[in-house]
Design brief:
By secondary structure, this protein is α/β, with parallel strands linked by helices. The protein is built from five helices and five strands. A five-stranded parallel beta sheet has the order 2-1-3-4-5, with helices on both faces.
Protein backbone atom coordinates (compact mmCIF):
# COMPACT_ATOMS: atom_id res chain seq x y z
CA UNK A 1 0.00 0.00 0.00
CA UNK A 2 1.43 3.37 -1.02
CA UNK A 3 1.98 5.89 1.77
CA UNK A 4 1.05 9.49 1.02
CA UNK A 5 2.03 12.41 3.22
CA UNK A 6 -0.62 15.13 2.99
CA UNK A 7 0.75 18.52 4.09
CA UNK A 8 -2.30 20.77 4.45
CA UNK A 9 -3.21 23.34 7.09
CA UNK A 10 -6.94 23.53 6.30
CA UNK A 11 -8.73 20.88 8.35
CA UNK A 12 -11.68 20.54 5.97
CA UNK A 13 -9.33 19.97 3.00
CA UNK A 14 -7.24 17.50 5.05
CA UNK A 15 -10.26 15.51 6.16
CA UNK A 16 -11.86 15.36 2.70
CA UNK A 17 -8.67 14.42 0.86
CA UNK A 18 -7.46 11.91 3.43
CA UNK A 19 -10.84 10.11 3.48
CA UNK A 20 -11.02 9.93 -0.31
CA UNK A 21 -7.40 8.78 -0.66
CA UNK A 22 -7.89 6.13 2.02
CA UNK A 23 -10.94 4.82 0.13
CA UNK A 24 -8.69 4.53 -2.95
CA UNK A 25 -6.35 2.26 -1.00
CA UNK A 26 -3.64 4.71 0.08
CA UNK A 27 -2.24 5.00 3.59
CA UNK A 28 -2.43 8.71 4.42
CA UNK A 29 -0.21 10.51 6.90
CA UNK A 30 -1.00 14.10 7.87
CA UNK A 31 1.17 17.17 8.47
CA UNK A 32 -0.28 20.60 9.26
CA UNK A 33 2.56 22.93 8.23
CA UNK A 34 5.85 22.94 6.35
CA UNK A 35 8.05 22.04 9.33
CA UNK A 36 5.73 19.19 10.30
CA UNK A 37 5.81 17.99 6.68
CA UNK A 38 9.61 17.96 6.59
CA UNK A 39 9.83 16.13 9.92
CA UNK A 40 7.32 13.48 8.84
CA UNK A 41 8.89 13.08 5.38
CA UNK A 42 12.23 12.38 7.07
CA UNK A 43 10.84 9.95 9.65
CA UNK A 44 8.05 8.22 7.72
CA UNK A 45 9.57 7.98 4.21
CA UNK A 46 6.29 8.34 2.30
CA UNK A 47 6.04 7.17 -1.30
CA UNK A 48 4.59 10.57 -2.35
CA UNK A 49 3.89 13.98 -0.81
CA UNK A 50 0.89 16.22 -1.48
CA UNK A 51 2.00 19.72 -0.43
CA UNK A 52 -0.12 22.83 -0.02
CA UNK A 53 1.82 25.98 -0.88
CA UNK A 54 0.23 28.38 1.60
CA UNK A 55 1.19 26.95 4.97
CA UNK A 56 1.92 28.46 8.40
CA UNK A 57 5.42 28.38 9.91
CA UNK A 58 7.11 27.49 6.60
CA UNK A 59 5.39 27.73 3.23
CA UNK A 60 5.30 24.90 0.72
CA UNK A 61 7.92 26.50 -1.52
CA UNK A 62 10.55 26.42 1.24
CA UNK A 63 9.51 22.96 2.42
CA UNK A 64 9.88 21.56 -1.12
CA UNK A 65 13.31 23.17 -1.53
CA UNK A 66 14.53 21.62 1.72
CA UNK A 67 13.09 18.19 0.91
CA UNK A 68 14.63 18.18 -2.57
CA UNK A 69 18.00 19.29 -1.16
CA UNK A 70 18.27 16.36 1.26
CA UNK A 71 19.58 12.99 0.10
CA UNK A 72 17.03 11.04 2.18
CA UNK A 73 13.97 12.86 0.79
CA UNK A 74 14.96 14.20 -2.64
CA UNK A 75 13.55 11.23 -4.59
CA UNK A 76 10.08 11.43 -2.99
CA UNK A 77 7.68 12.77 -5.65
CA UNK A 78 5.85 15.94 -4.61
CA UNK A 79 2.57 17.21 -6.02
CA UNK A 80 1.78 20.78 -5.03
CA UNK A 81 -1.82 21.67 -4.28
CA UNK A 82 -2.81 25.34 -4.42
CA UNK A 83 -5.79 27.60 -4.95
CA UNK A 84 -3.61 30.11 -6.81
CA UNK A 85 -3.83 29.83 -10.59
CA UNK A 86 -1.15 32.37 -11.45
CA UNK A 87 1.45 31.13 -13.92
CA UNK A 88 4.22 32.59 -11.73
CA UNK A 89 3.07 30.46 -8.80
CA UNK A 90 3.40 27.33 -10.90
CA UNK A 91 6.83 28.42 -12.16
CA UNK A 92 8.01 29.04 -8.59
CA UNK A 93 6.80 25.60 -7.52
CA UNK A 94 8.53 23.90 -10.44
CA UNK A 95 11.73 25.85 -9.72
CA UNK A 96 11.54 24.64 -6.11
CA UNK A 97 11.58 21.06 -7.41
CA UNK A 98 8.00 19.79 -7.41
CA UNK A 99 7.13 16.88 -9.67
CA UNK A 100 3.60 18.02 -10.49
CA UNK A 101 1.08 20.73 -9.72
CA UNK A 102 -2.68 20.69 -9.14
CA UNK A 103 -5.18 23.47 -8.52
CA UNK A 104 -7.83 23.62 -5.82
CA UNK A 105 -10.64 22.83 -5.77
CA UNK A 106 -9.17 19.43 -6.47
CA UNK A 107 -10.59 17.36 -9.29
CA UNK A 108 -10.07 14.08 -7.44
CA UNK A 109 -9.89 11.72 -10.43
CA UNK A 110 -7.22 13.90 -12.07
CA UNK A 111 -5.22 13.99 -8.81
CA UNK A 112 -5.38 10.21 -8.45
CA UNK A 113 -4.14 9.82 -12.04
CA UNK A 114 -1.17 12.07 -11.24
CA UNK A 115 -0.44 10.11 -8.06
CA UNK A 116 -0.49 6.78 -9.92
CA UNK A 117 1.72 8.16 -12.71
CA UNK A 118 4.35 9.43 -10.27
CA UNK A 119 4.28 6.26 -8.18
CA UNK A 120 4.70 4.14 -11.33
CA UNK A 121 7.59 6.34 -12.44
CA UNK A 122 9.27 5.70 -9.09
CA UNK A 123 8.83 1.93 -9.52
CA UNK A 124 10.48 2.10 -12.95
CA UNK A 125 13.69 3.60 -11.56
Amino acid sequence: MARILLVEDNQMNRDMLSRRLTRKGFEVQIAVDGWDGITKARSESPHLILMDLRLPEMDGFEAVKLLKAEEATRSIPIIVLTACVLAREKERALEAGVDDFDIKPIQFSRLVEKIHRLLARGNDQ
